[in-house]
Amino acid sequence: MRVQQRGDGRLRRRAVAAAGALALTGVLSALAPAPDARAAGGPAAPAATDAASARAALPAPTGPYAVGTVTRLLVDTARKDPWKPEQGDRRVAISLFYPADRETGPRTAPHMDAASAAHFGSARGAGSFNYRVRPGAADWAATRTHARVAAPAAHGSRALPVVLYSAGLGDPRTWNTGLVEELASRGYVVVTIDHTYDSSEVRLAGGKPAESVLPSLAGAPAPEVDATLRKAVKARVDDTRFVLDTLGSARWRRSLPRGLGDAVDLRRVGMAGQSAGGFTAAQALHDDRRLKAGINMDGQMDFPLPDSTGSRLSTVAREGVDRPFLLLGSDGPGAADNRASWASFRQHSRGRQAELTMAGAEHGTYTDAVSLLPALARQGALPEEVLRQDIGTVRPERAVAATRAYVVAFFDRFLKHEDGQLLDGPSPRFPEMRFRGAPDS
């Protein structure tokens, strides 16, 4: 979650100026169709052969376990929805990905259900406003995961560590499934959280998906932008704590696929997120001691305007955390926007920490965009220049391998207490990763 002054679907120049030189994500900017080649400054993109025909695939997980998945809708009766209180109790959709018995379960899950995929690919969906894929040019519903629906947990599963995952502002919980499946294939239960009315779309019980309220705030004045972003972070942290409460219910866990509820180890819970989700992971770690370690992938941790103390920094950026934390950054034009909050966070943190930068990466590199958008660009769903602005110049397969390796290594060290030394310093296996300090053993 950070300033993007490029026209890549993050908060653009007009919103940045309105916020007094700082804003956090592009959902509040004026929505516009993905640009043609003249807007992108490059040659004309080839037209997709048929409407909604462009397709892409997620990379397979590489761990020793098969992956299962199940989705649940949670209702927080202690809290009204912060975005639409007239709708009543807060509803939060989650998916669990976990080690499963091989070749079990009736079918693999779609990356997005059909209704959510249709909205994601529309002019008001995150595919357009965050990543500038031409509305209707990609068949988002065609992408499949590698996880089997409601498969039994892997035979003999006991005391599996848990990782919560929060996506970027406006992105759905599905938008890092490649990384989530990798963690599950390596022995983690991963819980992805949809932050309703923030996420591009959330499939609730019955009817069409609940759409994000953020696009309707395009062109809002600076104080409203600031208030909206503060509300979003608070709602996200509250959602996270509610999910933790739910996972703590033995009765609720009995509703999960066979063997899964008994395998969850809530003494070892970490959290990761990209952009606003990375901010959420840090703030939740600051606010809730049930979380033992966290990862922020390219997320700013401050706000557009100062608060009553005169600071734009969040409380977690001002005070840091006392548990292990990993910062994974990009090096595109927007990377400088992380520096103030990240520097303060590191200065005030007392836990083991590391900060790495991926050479050639952009903000979307740490999402499924790096796996899916190159194929869609080749089929004409977005211009090549926009692709570079979304995911940078790093080779996609290298970006996927590096992100997976460092995220797994971090949680292996601090949740499983297994150490492969990858976090100790630069590795010849991943020359694209530059260190700015490593965590203690």
UniProtKB/TrEMBL annotation:
Pfam families: PAF-AH_p_II. The keyword Ligase does not apply. One of its GO terms (molecular function) is 1-alkyl-2-acetylglycerophosphocholine esterase activity. Residues 1-32 form the signal peptide. InterPro entries: AB_hydrolase_fold, TAT_signal. The keyword Magnesium does not apply. It comes from the Bacteria. One of its GO terms (biological process) is lipid catabolic process. Coiled coil: none annotated. Keywords: Hydrolase, Lipid degradation, Lipid metabolism, Signal. This is Esterase. The lineage of its organism: Bacteria, Bacillati, Actinomycetota, Actinomycetes, Kitasatosporales.
